[in-house]
Amino acid sequence: MSDSMWQGSGVDLDAYLTRVGYEGDVAANLATLQRLHAAHVEAIPFDNLDPLLGRTEVPLDIAHVQEKIVRQGRGGWCLEQVALMAAVLERIGFTFTAFAGRTRIRTGSPFGPALHVALAVHAEDGLWLHDVSFGAYGLHEPMRLMDGARLDGDFSFDLVREMSGERVLRFLRPEGPAELYGFTMDMRYPSDFELLNHFCLTHPRSPFNHRVVLQRTQARVRHLLVGNQLTELRPGEPAAVRELDEAEVLAALQEIFGISLRSADIMALGKVLACR
């Protein structure tokens, strides 16, 4: 195991860059940060399939997350993806901290557990919110981490600060802003990731251990599959929602989300879906 906090020296950087389709030089600057963020979210989906397949551990050390996400072509949930990205950024030479956020868009409440994690990265002229793992409603590229910041594009976002002191990342939809998550800048460490990981894997109120949740964030289209309900988001259009049957869910793994599963896992997941 690496002796650095985020295990950056254990990263196979060439393999990671190939996995996300990143070409060209890498350096600890804003241009690299932006290109890495976009490449990662385009290539690597949010994937909670391991607990549904009966796996009782989802390790966060760099050896395991690389094997799963980089070499096996899988996705991962936010803790795995941010652990991988933190190691990559540390290896390249970036300075950053991790923080945790309370997801609001799926709960409708600002008081849920702080299960989502992301990074605050120093680059050139300031601090940047670098969040590669929120999924279909999340950022495609980093945005400035400051009150009132706004990121405009096909999908737009802003950051507002509430009276409580929490910042809130909002997805600016045509029908009005949707609050994604609230957060403070309290630092989180790999040991905190382990506690959150245990909750996500085992707790009866975890949103990730009892139904399929797959998400993919591409430049012009985003997809979210929860259970058998598929949501597609395109710029300036209402969300398109439809129900999938068991065969369509299994086909969507590769066709929509780009997830490569071993044949034995596909069969096991099919049995899980048939029982629900």
From TrEMBL:
Protein name: N-hydroxyarylamine O-acetyltransferase
Pfam family, one: Acetyltransf_2
UniProt keywords, alphabetically: Acyltransferase, Transferase
Record-linked InterPro entries: Arylamine_N-AcTrfase, Papain-like_cys_pep_sf
GO molecular function, one term: N-hydroxyarylamine O-acetyltransferase activity
Taxonomic superkingdom: Bacteria
UniProt xrefs under Gene3D superfamilies: Arylamine N-acetyltransferase, Cysteine proteinases
EC number per UniProt: 2.3.1.118
SUPFAM superfamilies in the record: Cysteine proteinases (SSF54001)
PANTHER family to which the protein is assigned, alphabetical: ARYLAMINE N-ACETYLTRANSFERASE 4-RELATED, N-HYDROXYARYLAMINE O-ACETYLTRANSFERASE
Family affiliation: Belongs to the arylamine N-acetyltransferase family.
